[in-house]
Amino acid sequence: MLNLLFFLVAGATLSLLAWSGFELFKAQEDPLGDRMEELQSRALVAANRGPRRKSTGRGSRILYVVSLFPGGDDWIRGSERLLIQAGIRRRNAVAVYVASALVFLGLLVAGTIRLQSGQLGFNLIGGLVAAGILGFLLPKMVLQRMVRRYRRKLQEALPDTIDLLGIVLGTGLALDQAMMRVSEEMEYIYPELAAEFGTVVMQVRAGQERTVAFNQLVRRTGIEDIKSLAAMIVQSEKFGTSLAVALKVYAEGLRKRRTLAAEAAVAKAGIKMLFPIVIFILPVLFVITLVPGLLSVMKDLKLLTAGR
Fold this sequence. Notes:
This protein is mainly alpha-helical. It contains eleven helices and no strands. Helix 6 crosses helix 11 (about 245-305). It is flat and about 100 Å long.
């Protein structure tokens, strides 16, 4: 019975894994159209906070089935928010992530059943509980790590991008045109921030208010410096002040903070290197320097003992 259950779970998980790989690596032929469709779907989701409705797509069917379980809809919404903050915003990203997490959970459960095939009772129950906890927590931890890496890339790109935005604004271009020009120039250097700027400009051109577009940028990234930048741009547009000068001062402040952070990291490097030196390097040095002397002393003592 346990072997039959193992093969059923393994077969289901492998099928989900194959579908997830197909959806993940499928090429996007119309990125702009996909992005606009994604924005429209988000607007509909924001307007309707109830349970997800059943749809005809394969990914939507998976999300609908998962949302029927207690806490499933909250898990899907939390995963969707983390995926957006990690810069993964394809249409089927949430469905692929949910399917992959279920595949991982199924593999852990199947492996636990296989390993505990000869045991019943508390050992099997404990193994299944541990597999369920790991299957739920590990994908979320990986996604949170991706969010931190994406935010770090945006943070590193801010000073140079803001400098360039101030220079372009000084030539007389409007804010939307300047942001699109900066997005085009920074596409190969800082593609993450360039994509965010391009998304803001696209939303404004689609008819959305600039304040709402910048607020959505802040929610997508979750970075305090981008929040300050958005507030500065909105206030400068509202009161008619010079945005180029404000951006220049703000970029200098960001660059100074980045320099101070680098100096702090260098100052901490010595303390961090102390533990590897004490644990790994010093014992090797002791062995290299002391062992030959000890061997020679032991050899001499052996010769003296033999001579007597």
